[in-house]
Design goal:
The complex is a heterodimer of chains A (90) and B (1043). Chain A has 90 residues and is mostly beta strands. Chain A contains one helix and seven strands; from the N terminus they run E-E-E-E-H-E-E-E. Classes of the chains: A mainly beta (90), B alpha/beta (1043).
């Protein structure tokens, strides 16, 4: 498991679940959304804090769809209009 | 599909829920729920409020609790009244020990009438799973079809999997599913407060993690759409309505009976009460009284209709027991309006003589049990309670709970600590804040900023204010009510959970108001320190233990017109008297100048928020002193208001006005009074006004304007005044305390010092004794006892300070010292040290307090004590006495100021000169007068005065005003500080002694020279003077004046 905390560009085709994202110049297609959850916190810092929607997804790079061992398990979260890739499991 | 919330915590889960039952019910109704359950952790404390709130919002209340049995979280919901009784029993059993409540599944074996929801943890290893299966199987045997597996999804990582596993588990076990949201707060917005409260509960800050802390705002009262995508099947949601339909408990309409009274065999309670009243009648009215006969007949009829005979007989039994043990007691409150209470000896106030209305106490339309309050000598109240428990059995008696809610200081302390402010800053802030409601927190933003952020307004202060404000009436914990004893014929653990308080007393989980709603019978066994003072004073006057009844009744049979007692009251020197010792009363007494006992009754009632805030005091004083004409709102009201000069002072007068003027019968009039004294909505108020006005217009043919005016007078008063019976009962104690102070100052003040019934500190009480000419003798190991005592010195009575006044000297230690002395007097320090098993701290405090002065000066005996302790042989060793220990060097005596400092450090008082007397020459040089001298100066003079601060108040209702009482060696002086001056000097005002400058004021109309106060304009701190309200500095009390 790697902690990355990097901004990503995410596409949501229907509803609110992400369907694909671009991370480190590579496009990933999301195959399944395994879990969804929400986190709120830091409300004590500026009176508002954050509210995030998390998604644990399995994704595959679009360029090498059949490449072995390239499936990525990632945790993405949305905070406001921004998407962040939080963790990656190889 | 209807979904009902069946797992919902209110703030009665104590720091594990953030919303009141009222807010939860309101929100549930707003989102279209038709029922709502309350399931607080291990308690039903919020159940009554929940029932009321649900009824108000038109939804069905369901009652339950969350418990943990063998590590399994269970929601227990009552399906019917037998289920409610069973839940009470289970919770009582869980609380059988004082520490945290505990249950096993075996303890639930006899459960019935309860639904049980079990929450199964998803990540179980093989062993844990096996145990869980066994526990659930056991629960299935107990609850059968009433057992469900609970599913909830709080939008946390892993919740979806947990739901799936729980469904799988339920299918394996053949159990039904039920959905909940495990609610902890009403709306999203309350999540922050819930999080902060949980941090306070677990003693962590918001920056620290904890498994119980919420990860988001999901635990709120949601509707069924919120469950979309959670994996919870629709059957589990539907099941909630099925369960809700089968939960039917009417908590607010119980049938409760009083416990059995001791009634001679062969006669009924009704006959026996009549018999007791007739005997009482012969004793109270030896010459007969036609009016009393008529009233007795009426009262007995109403008591019979309401089936309260046994209740009166039970209370009589308690009072009789107290009297048989010479425990001073006195009935108070509206019960004193009853002739039956007077004839049975429950009260001592004749309702005929004082024109008291029975309807204020009881009438046929009254709902619920009447309140009978009896004050007992506070030092012996526990004997009465112990007897009651023995008499009726511990299954049928328990004390009422007291819900301790957060106040401003405690709320700021908890939330600021949770927000991560340093403890030192939180402590500093606590000292800057007054005792006030949390709703006023924003009035103290400046104090918060100074205490927490060095004067800077930061966003954290705003967060703190928002959370504290939101706490409203949030309860902190349950404690023991001061006197409400519940008596029941049925075992109490079927009516309420019963738990054990911190001091091992059985208490129910409901507070006073809830008890009334439940219809439980409460008898207030109140401890009144002034009664302990009177008993103690009588003992000291007699100089021996009381054995004969006439001794204890000595002050009960004195005439009520003693000139010396009234002279003392009129002089305003009322410190240490019951009810009339506050500066406000000093001022009022100077103006009213009471002459008779009836005037005292008025005096007690006059100094109440009702008369004070409605501006009735000035007209009353002017009319009473004959400088204004007595006017009545309407001629028909003259008989009602004649003895109070046309002004409404008593609650009974409200009844009479409604009866005579607005044509209501007395039962209706009391209902009118009761409704008016509660919080009223404008609509309710208008309805009452209309009824009153229409009644008056019809009966007296008066105009609407006049009827409206009388209604406004009544509305301004009601709810904030005493009933006449209560004032009369209190006035009797006021008079007794004044009589004892006037005639027996030494024993009375010794008793006051012992029991400290008022709000003045002990050194002020000691000064008062000295002003009365009573000598005060220091604590002494060869003379003092364990209590304040009176000795004869040079033919005069003097007060001896007890050893228990010295810090660290407990009652047990003092008893050891006295008992050892009785076998053989102490002849030297060494001998005393060797004979007594005291630690070095106790010996040092005895020496520093001057209790060893009989053996030498303080510094010398302090050294000798230390030397003797070094040489004291250990147990079983043989002593070589002081061989080889060098002689002490020459030690200088303490300076007078050092003596005062040591006195205050060890006893909070001094028997030497008043600290202000020691610095009088310095005060003279600063142009300060003595307080006594101010009496001779005309009002308006600008004066300067110095003194110790003995009281400091800044009530939230006083619009920023601060009131301080200064004391010097001559007297005491009330001062008032306007907000602008307070803002300028608030740091200085924390000092224990102050020099103040301001305009001298008299007490207003007719006060003459009896009262003086100062409106302060400038303030200086008299630094490092011992004995002020802020305590002493701990340094050498050299007087200095600093700006």
């Amino acid at each position: 498991m790697k902690s990355c905390h990097e901004p990503v560009v995410v596409r949501c085709e229907s509803g609110t679940d992400p369907t694909s994202f671009i991370w480190r110049c590579r496009l990933y297609r999301i195959e399944t959304v395994e879990d969804r959850w929400r986190r709120a916190g830091d409300w004590w810092i500026d009176g508002r804090g954050f509210r995030r929607s998390y998604f644990r997804v399995t994704a595959r790079p679009v360029a090498q769809p059949r490449a072995k061992g390239r499936i990525l398990i990632a945790e993405l979260y949305q905070q406001g209009a921004n998407w962040i890739i939080d963790r990656v499991y190889d | 599909m209807r979904f009902v919330h069946l797992h919902c915590h209110s703030w009665y889960s104590f720091l594990a829920g953030a919303s009141s039952p009222g807010d939860l019910a309101e929100r549930a109704a707003a989102i279209g729920q038709n029922a709502l359950a309350i399931t607080d952790d291990w308690t039903l404390a919020g159940a009554v409020q929940h029932a009321q709130a649900c009824i108000k919002h038109g939804i069905k209340p369901i009652f339950g609790a969350r418990v943990v049995a063998d590590g399994l979280g269970l929601i227990l919901l009552c399906s019917d009244s037998s289920g409610y009784a069973c839940l009470c029993d289970i919770l009582t059993y869980a609380h059988r020990k004082r520490l945290n409540p505990q249950l096993t599944i075996d303890d639930l074996a006899n459960a019935h009438g309860l639904f049980c929801f079990a929450h199964v943890e998803p990540l179980l290893d093989h062993e844990e799973r096996k145990k869980t299966v066994a526990r659930i199987t056991h629960l299935k045997i107990i609850f059968n079809d009433f057992l469900f597996i609970e599913l909830f999804h709080h939008r946390r990582s892993g919740d979806y999997q947990a739901v799936l596993k729980s469904i799988e588990f339920a299918n394996e076990m053949g159990l039904q599913l039920v959905a909940t949201n495990a609610v902890r707060h009403a709306t999203h917005h309350d999540y922050k407060l819930y999080d902060a409260l949980l941090c306070a509960k677990h003693r962590i800050t918001v920056a620290q993690g904890h498994s119980e802390r919420p990860q988001n705002e999901a635990a709120f009262l949601c509707n069924e759409h919120y469950f979309g995508g959670t994996g919870i099947p629709s059957e589990a949601l539907k099941k909630t309505q099925w369960v809700a339909d089968r939960c039917n408990v009417d908590l607010l309409s119980p049938e409760v009976e009083p416990p059995h009274a001791a009634i001679p065999s062969g006669i009924t309670a009704e006959e026996y009460l009549r018999q007791v009243c007739i005997e009482g009648f012969r004793a109270r009215y030896p010459n007969g009284n036609t009016e009393a006969v008529k009233l007795l007949k009426k009262e007995l009829e109403i008591i019979g209709t309401l089936e309260l005979e046994e209740f009166f007989l039970v209370v009589r039994e308690v009072v009789q027991f107290a009297r048989s043990r010479h425990i001073r007691c006195s009935g108070r409150g509206s019960a004193a309006n009853s002739l039956v209470a007077y004839l049975t000896g429950i009260t001592e106030v004749c309702p005929i003589k004082h024109k008291l209305l029975f309807e204020r106490f009881l009438h046929e339309g009254r709902r619920g049990m009447p309140d009978i309050d009896v004050d007992f000598d506070s030092s012996r109240r526990d004997e009465v309670i112990a007897w009651m428990i023995e008499r009726w059995g511990d299954q049928h008696t328990a004390m009422t709970a007291n819900v301790i809610t957060f106040r401003l200081r405690s709320a700021v302390r908890e939330i600021a600590t949770a927000l991560g402010f340093p403890i030192a800053a939180v402590n500093r802030t606590g000292r800057l804040l007054p005792h006030a409601n949390v709703r006023h927190v924003r009035n103290y933003r400046r104090e918060l900023a100074i205490g927490l952020c060095g004067g800077r307004e930061t966003p954290a202060i705003e967060t703190l204010c928002t959370l504290v404000e939101q706490m409203g009436e949030c309860p902190r914990h349950l404690s023991l009510h001061s006197g409400g004893m519940i008596l029941s014929r049925k075992p109490l653990n079927r009516l309420s959970p019963v738990q054990t308080s911190a001091n091992s007393v059985r208490q129910i989980q409901f507070a006073k108001d809830d008890v009334e709603k439940l219809g439980l019978i409460k008898f207030d066994v109140l401890g009144l320190r002034m009664l302990a003072v009177i008993s103690e004073a009588v003992l000291l006057i007699n100089g021996r233990l009381v054995t004969a009844h006439e001794d204890i009744s000595r002050v009960d049979i004195i005439s009520l017109n003693d000139p010396k007692a009234f002279e003392l009251i009129r002089s305003g020197e009322t410190l240490a008297l019951f009810q009339i010792e506050s500066p406000g009363q000093w001022n009022l007494l100077a103006r009213t100048q009471p002459q008779t006992f009836d005037d005292l009754v008025v005096q007690v009632a006059l100094f109440r928020p009702g008369p004070l805030q409605s501006g009735m005091v000035h007209p009353f004083v002017a009319r009473r002193r004959g400088i204004a004409k007595t006017l009545y709102p309407h001629p028909s009201l003259e008989p009602v208001l004649r003895d109070t000069n046309g002004i409404i002072l008593f609650q009974e007068q409200v009844l009479e006005v409604a009866h005579i003027f607005a044509d209501m019968n007395l039962s209706e009039a009391d209902e009118f009074r009761r409704l008016m004294s509660k919080f009223r909505s404008p609509t309710e108020m208008e309805a009452m006004r209309e009824k009153f006005v229409q009644g008056a217009m019809k009966k007296h043919r008066v105009g609407r304007a006049l009827a409206d005016r009388v209604f406004n007078i009544v509305a301004a008063f009601v709810g904030y005044g005493f009933c006449r019976s209560h004032a009369a009962a209190f006035a009797r104690t006021v008079y007794q305390s004044a009589y004892l102070k006037a005639h027996y100052p030494a024993p009375y003040m010794a008793a006051v010092l012992q029991h400290k019934p008022g709000f003045f500190p002990v050194h002020t009480l000691l000064e008062e004794a000295r002003r009365l000419g009573v000598r005060v003798l220091p604590a002494c190991i060869v003379r003092s006892g364990v209590k304040y005592s009176v000795e004869i010195v040079d033919g005069e009575q003097a007060i001896r300070i007890p050893l228990t006044q010295i810090q660290q000297i407990s009652l047990e230690t003092a008893q050891c010292i006295v008992l050892e002395r009785m076998t053989d007097p102490y002849k030297s320090i060494e001998q005393a040290v060797w004979r007594l098993n005291l630690d070095i701290g106790e010996w040092e405090n005895l020496a520093r307090a001057g209790a060893l002065d009989a053996f030498g000066s303080r510094r010398v005996v302090l050294m000798e004590v230390r030397r003797a302790l070094r040489c004291k042989p250990a147990k079983g060793q043989y002593s070589l006495a002081f061989e080889g220990v060098p002689d002490l060097p020459r030690i200088f005596d303490l300076e007078p100021n050092e003596l005062t400092e040591w006195d205050f450090e060890t006893q909070s008082l001094t028997t030497g000169l008043h600290p202000m007397a020691r610095m009088r020459s310095h005060l003279d040089s600063l142009g300060a007068s003595t307080i006594e001298d101010l009496r001779q100066l005309p009002s308006g003079t600008v004066v300067r005065v110095g003194g110790n601060v003995i009281s400091r108040q800044r009530p939230p209702t006083a619009r920023g005003m601060c009131f301080i009482i200064l004391e010097d060696e001559t007297s005491r002086l009330p001062t008032a500080i306007i907000p602008e001056v307070y803002e300028k000097h608030h740091e200085i005002l924390r000092a224990g002694a102050l020099l103040m400058e301001g305009k001298l004021e008299d007490g207003g109309l007719l006060a003459g020279n009896n009262y003086r106060s100062v409106l302060v304009s400038r303030i200086w701190s008299l630094d490092k003077v011992a004995g002020g309200a802020a305590g002493h500095s701990g340094e050498n009390p050299r007087a200095g004046v600093s700006r």
